[in-house]
Amino acid sequence: MAGTVLGVGAGVFILALLWVLVLLLCVLLFRASGIARFSVIFVFLAALTITSILLLFPRASEFAAPEVETKVVDTFFIGRYVLLAFLSAVFLASLFLVLTHHVLEPVYAKPLRSS
């Protein structure tokens, strides 16, 4: 599905933007005085008309066209496993060095008497 976000097309976002703008415009017009206050009815009816036009005359067909299955080929397959083997060897060697450093750490004797 090309041109979709979260599984829905651009029409849903257009309708959401339309109704958010209509809601903001209605809130602003409700605070107006005089005849401008009654223009909320016309704004609402215009948004309702635009919504019905967009819903009744869709651009695309109702059924999606069958998609051609694409075959994914990993061309770096061998290189990826060589890199994994190299990193595993480096990890094991560094773990061995850390453990030998920890086990072979010198322990110094404390002096029995200080004179």
What are the secondary-structure elements, in order, as H or E?
A: HHH
Structural class: mainly alpha
- Report the radius of gyration as a whole number of Å: 35 Å
Low-confidence stretches: none
* Percentage of residues in strands: under 5%
The main sheet comes to:
none
Distance between the termini: 87 Å
Query: What would you call the shape?
Result: elongated
Number of strands: 0
In oligomeric terms, what are we looking at? single chain
- Count, helices: 3
Mean pLDDT: 85
| Helix content, binned percent | 55-70%
Looking at this protein, list some descriptive labels.
115 residues; 0% strand; mainly alpha; 3 helices
Please tell me about this protein's structure.
The chain is mostly helical and 115 residues long. The protein is 57% helix and 0% strand. It has helices spanning 10-30, 39-56, 77-103. Helix 1 (10-30) runs antiparallel to helix 2. The longest helix has 27 residues, at 77-103. The radius of gyration is 35 Å and the shape is elongated. It starts with 9 loop residues before the first helix and ends in a 12-residue tail after the last helix. The relative contact order is 0.06. The model has no long low-confidence stretch (mean pLDDT 85).
In terms of topology, how is this protein built?
Layout: H1 10-30, H2 39-56, H3 77-103
Helix pairs in contact: 1-2
